[in-house]
Structure prediction request, 289 residues.
Amino acid sequence: MLTIENQQLKVTIVSAGAELQSIYHKNFQLEYLWSGNPAFWAKRSPILFPIVGTLKQDTYFYKNKSYCLGRHGFAREMEFSVDSQEPYSIIFSLKSSEITLKKFPFKFEFRIGYQLLDDKLTTTYTVLNKGKEDMYFSVGAHPAFKVPLVENSSYNDYFLEFNKKENLSRWPISKDGLIETKPVSILNNQRVLPLTKELFLQDALVFKHLESSSVSLKSSKTVHGLDFSLGGFPYLGIWAAKNADFVCIEPWCGIADSVNSDQQLVHKEGINKITADEIFERSWEARFY
Prediction:
């Protein structure tokens, strides 16, 4: 277990998957991250790379060759190295290997940086193409925040508030984990999405084309919550396991395959391409209060 902390926040991370384990506000003596209870969902904040979501038949094709990748890719299950650590920050890295090349035929270096400033945690994903040809990939976050945050409040007391009014439709997920073709309206010129456990009985809420640059987790029963900056991520997932006391706020550069996908990696919706030696970087930031 590795720790970074300042006067307000103490954050712990494990090198396995470079996954957050705790976000603790020392002034409020309040934990913000889900506990990872395996009875519901054992993860807390997995990293999604080199794909986000599910591939059709867990398979994609690149240069006439098929490759198999499970949901959300392999990074969350791999051991990261610690490149550097300071009291307020830490950088992890994962490099391509014989193991990864069998599933993902690109040479890469993937870095994850966590940095504290006052009451904010910034998480940065950096992808470096170490090969000689274009590299295609997706990357995303999956942090699970505890709901309810404080005693004497319930799950239904909480809501998500976007910083702009939204006309949002969710893209339903098929039983195979693929994106359906017809969206379903969920917000009509509104900013607030009330949280209920029934909201996630049909899997995650998947959104495209948000107007907002941030979303907040709030409650009328407490002053405590968090503001989540979405950065340059074009997709957003909102999810919780069945009857679990958390909500995931998931900014994605990538998305699951459509039910109509031709499974060609270069055609995949939301896929990112970087040339040889090019660097891709995205960050999300959360403020805890």
